[in-house]
UniProtKB/TrEMBL annotation:
Its main location: cytoplasm. The record marks H165, E215 as: Could be important to modulate the pK values of the two catalytic cysteine residues. Substrate binds at N15, Q47, N67, G77, N78, N163, N197, E215, R216, G225, S226. This is Diaminopimelate epimerase. Belongs to the diaminopimelate epimerase family. GO terms for biological process: lysine biosynthetic process via diaminopimelate. Pathway: Amino-acid biosynthesis; L-lysine biosynthesis via DAP pathway; DL-2,6-diaminopimelate from LL-2,6-diaminopimelate: step 1/1. The keyword Amino-acid biosynthesis applies. One of its GO terms (molecular function) is diaminopimelate epimerase activity. Gene3D superfamilies: Diaminopimelate Epimerase, Chain A, domain 1. The keyword Lipid metabolism does not apply. The active site is at C76, C76 (proton donor), C224 (proton acceptor). It comes from the Bacteria.
């Protein structure tokens, strides 16, 4: 099957997302297509969110998520907000339930245009994150980079938010670290058998944290929703903040914030933030060859 499908270039706080409509088709966006799309500056992306027909009763769609290197991702909070905005514009609905390989996600679009996604419960068990070594307390694991007596980064909090995360706490501006150099080393560290998302996090007040993320399978990214959730949860878990914080995404363009609440009554993590449509077109999900429909955000305003 080679007929093209509709897709939209969108972003969540600058996190570059391609939302691809695969409903009514049995095939998937191929890893080769993802690599081809990412190689083109106009369609370069952090994640592809491929919308498929629902597989589970009571859900609106199954979302297949691909990283820019063609690998699979289990979760993408910023991408989920983009899917909600796209489907809300199409259907007029405001509430959605999605299935991913990481589980069920519930989401709602608010009147002000922001979107909340229930990202589920965080996972702290070492073998479910997963980590290669057993740690009784994963809020601080033994891992460092740099000289033994003066490491550049050390003792991260580890957890899964549908995908594995390591949060390194730093005392200065997160943009002052060479994450482009450290990121790939840490992502592929033997400690993480399924690789990991690497986030630098600085607590700036009892209710705010600034982050910067190297995404597994995508590299440096302008924003990462599941990393923001992981940083918020880890900050509360280690006593650095309370359970509701503002995440300032340092690398977002324009700078932006996410509101994260780690709910006390059920331990679910609720992420609220914006999504933005940029332009639309059609793509062959097998090859990645695409064409624009000629509209752009500026033309639509």
């Amino acid at each position: 099957m080679s007929a093209t499908v509709e897709f939209a270039r969108m972003n969540g706080l600058g996190n570059k997302i391609l939302v691809v409509d695969m409903r009514g088709r049995p095939d998937k966006v191929t890893p080769a297509a993802a690599v081809t799309l990412n190689a083109d500056p106009q369609t370069e992306f952090d994640q592809i969110m491929a919308i498929h027909d629902p597989k589970a009763e009571g859900t609106d769609a199954f979302i297949d998520i691909l990283n820019s290197d063609g690998s699979k991702a289990q979760a993408c909070g910023n991408g989920t907000r983009c899917v909600v905005q796209a489907l809300a514009a199409e259907t007029g609905r405001k509430v959605f339930t999605f299935q991913t390989v990481a589980g069920i996600l519930n989401a709602v679009e608010h009147e002000d245009g922001t979107i909340s996604v229930d990202m589920g419960r965080p996972v702290f068990d070492w073998d479910r994150i997963p980590l290669a070594e057993e740690f009784h307390d994963t809020s601080r694991i033994e891992l460092q980079i740099g000289p033994i007596d003066k490491p550049v980064l050390h003792s991260p909090s580890a957890m899964s938010m549908g995908n594995p995360h390591a949060i390194f706490w730093v005392d200065r501006d997160v943009m002052s670290y060479d994450l482009a150099r450290f990121g790939p080393l840490l992502e592929n560290h033997p400690m993480f058998p399924e690789r990991a998302n690497i986030t630098l996090a600085q607590v700036t007040s009892p209710t705010s944290v600034t982050t910067r993320t190297w995404e597994r399978g995508a590299g440096l990214t302008l924003a990462c929703g599941s990393a923001a959730c992981s940083a918020a949860v880890s900050a509360a878990r280690t006593g650095r903040t309370g359970r509701k914080v503002t995440i300032n995404v340092a690398s977002a363009k324009p700078p932006g914030v996410l509101s994260i609440e780690w709910r006390e009554h059920d331990d679910h993590v609720i992420m609220t933030g914006p999504a933005e449509w940029e332009w639309s077109g059609r793509v062959d999900p097998s090859t990645g060859l695409w064409s624009s429909d000629g509209t752009r955000e500026a033309e639509a305003q």
